[in-house]
Specification:
This protein has helices at residues 30-47, 73-92, 111-127, 157-164, 172-185, 191-200; strands at 13-19, 50-57, 60-66, 104-107. With 205 residues, it is of the alpha+beta class. Strand 2 (50-57) and strand 3 (60-66) form a beta hairpin. The longest helix has 20 residues, at 73-92. The two termini are 24 Å apart. 31% of the residues are buried.
Length: 205
């Protein structure tokens, strides 16, 4: 069966999901999470993409990513996945596929989808009962949206906040508070309602 073609153009925004093969853990130790963070940082410098959100779960990870002018999402994810797989297999003396097939890639083609994906990513650990609040989970970009001053350019949060709150008279700290409210309101959605919303927007976990 032929592969489904990716929709590719400069400035496209994608929701990426990468799963462990047969649902296996892709992070065994804390150092593994740090390694994938370093790989993302290096890839961002090399490929010039913008990263709005991420979460690393024990057996999968999510990215909300906007590609630049020169490189496609396939080129970016090939480098990220291959580099991490080589690291993982060497460290744990494994062979073969770490990830389940190709990465899942969904084009973000409307504003509602963009915001729900960002919230879905940040609430993933809460839904999986790994923490009580999204801010408590270390391996997520949500922490970048919970402090006014950050010395890290991994997450393009000002761009996300400008897209979400284009009103010019809102200060950065006000935008951060509003975004936190938006995300955390999702904690009170019933599982059935949240899953229905995810299915409607084709958000894949």
């Amino acid at each position: 069966m032929p592969r489904k073609l990716r929709i590719i153009f400069p400035g496209a925004v994608y929701h990426i999901t990468v799963r462990g093969n047969n649902q296996q853990k892709i992070f065994r130790k804390i150092a593994d999470y740090f390694k994938l963070l370093r790989i993302l940082r290096e890839a961002k410098k090399q490929f010039g993409f913008r990263l709005y959100a991420f979460v690393f779960m024990p057996n999968h990870f999510h990215l909300l990513i906007c590609v630049g002018e020169k490189f496609s999402i396939s080129e970016i994810m090939k480098r990220v996945n291959q580099t991490y797989t080589q690291y993982f297999n060497k460290k744990y003396k494994c062979s073969g596929h770490l990830f389940q097939g190709r990465f899942f890639c969904s084009l973000i083609n409307n504003e509602a989808y963009f915001w729900e994906v960002s919230r879905y990513i940040h609430l993933n650990p809460v839904r999986a009962k790994l923490c009580l609040r999204p801010v408590d989970y270390q391996w997520s970009s949500y922490q970048f949206y919970c402090q006014e001053i950050i010395n890290d350019d991994l997450i393009d949060r000002e761009e996300l906040l400008e897209k979400y709150f284009p009103v010019k008279n809102l200060l950065l700290n006000e935008k951060l508070v509003e975004y936190q409210k938006f995300v955390e309101e999702g904690m009170f959605l019933k599982d059935d309602d949240y899953n229905k919303l995810a299915n409607t927007l084709k958000i894949v976990d």
